[in-house]
Amino acid sequence: xxxxxxxxxxxxxxxxxxxxxxxxxxxxxxxxxxxxxxxxxxxxxxxxxxxxxxxxxxxxxxxxxxxxxxxxxxxxxxxxxxxxxxxxxxxxxxxxxxxxxxxxxxxxxxxxxxxxxxxxxxxxxxxxxxxxxxxxxxxxxxxxxxxxxxxxxxxxxxxxxxxxxxxxxxxxxxxxxxxxxxxxxxxxxxxxxxxxx
Length: 197
Description:
This protein is α+β, with helices and mostly antiparallel strands. It has 2 domains: about 1-45; about 50-195, Umud Fragment, subunit A (Ribbon), CATH 2.10.109.10. It contains 4 helices and 12 strands. The longest helix is centred in the N-terminal third of the chain and has 28 residues, at about 20-45.
């Protein structure tokens, strides 16, 4: 009989009591979670913007109708660099929709499109021939273009289905017309969601 009682007391579960420390820990966890969500919300509202991709000019990086979160603060601190996907209003026209294109040349560089290939500072851009289709139309970049201070040359990733800096009605993109950097794409029909590269 004693042995049974001994085993019962060994395996008896201890009752968990709610201590002030446990309550404090739960409250702390909830507070920091709510605070993090609030800060994220404020940052997106204050510094972010949401635009929709129109057309297939940025395939495969972005697809038609896909929503894109835009970082509006980054270009207040730094200049766009080659490879960045920027969101801008052509010529600052606020009645136009936002365009989303990739920066291929920056201030101080010269740009030209010859034989379907992009030349920056007189040299063919090597990844152009591997990653993108040969361009059928050079547009205004048929002649060499020198980019001034705060000017950028942009192209769509889908080179032959893009209205970009080659078009006379868009031309070089000025920093003042750039809304921000495309940061995160979501809402794609083909599952192409994630950070914009």
